[in-house]
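Take a look at this chain, tokens included, and explain the fold to me:
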Amino acid sequence: MTMADTKTIPTVYDIAREAGVSRGTVDRVLHRRGRFSPDTEARVLDAVKRLGYSANLNAAKLSTRKTRNIACLLPSFSEGEYWAYINRGIMEAVDELGFNLAPAMYLYDQTDIDSFRDCAARLLEDAPDGVILNVVFREEVIRLSKILDERRIPYAFIDNKVDGLGNMLYVGIDPYRSGQLGAFLLTLQDCPSEIGLVRILRDKGRKGDPNEPRRQGFLDYIGTHFPDTAVHTVFIDPSAPESIEPALEGFMQEHPDVRHLATTNSRIHLVASFLKRHPGIHAVGFDHLDRNLQALKDGCVDFLVTHRIKDMAKECMGLFAESLSTGVPPSEKNHFVHLDILHRLNLE
């Protein structure tokens, strides 16, 4: 078998994507366990046939029981926050995959660039078999990726990425298009004269900006379709919750004509009480967090652009672990997850 041949060997994830089902469903069908419908079975088996998947070949490749040490360099979190869902998905994948995986969490403070540097240095000292990371401090991530390339340590991006690097794969949304979608939903009913964009105050040096691609998509959509609309930015500080309401009220005093508001981060819930006192403001947020869903249910938010965060993390760990075990990279580098549009009418 040539190198070119090995790069096209389909995995269970390719089968799942082709059949439009989950990896777990493919596993149940192939191993005849659990429950699945005849239609699901037919789709999976048809995908197996079309892609030329060989369960025996893949099982043979995975027969090695070597433990894979996978370092996860991710933001620290509190329960209920975005990265708590990511962490939960990664750990569930480790339990379900059946590979010998030893994940190690290197959790940094995304408001402190030195925290990222310290975690990255410890990670390199530990010399893992692979790394899963995201992008908050772009330049630091680029520097780290060059070291990983030099040491031939495979790495994968989750949730966001830097294009043009040597990562094995990416699993997450298309952030630019998600920003465009948010802008479309915000302006669905009318043409706003002014829009308020709520941003998170992160690190003092303004080096951390994981939502820049999504924000750019939002701004580009507004600039293209509503060139006369002014977009004003207000920063809020989650570490000082008592300052959020005064900051927003001061912003409204400065821009009294704002009737449309958006966040391109995952924390629309931080402005929910403000929006409750200003019912005439249309609002759009992002991400499937319980507190965001409550804001939508309470009528504070019109739309949420979301995705299944935990499933995304499970897919990333699964694809990466399988590639490390087989030595075969995924057939595609970018694995974009579906975007969902949530409204009060379809929330349940």
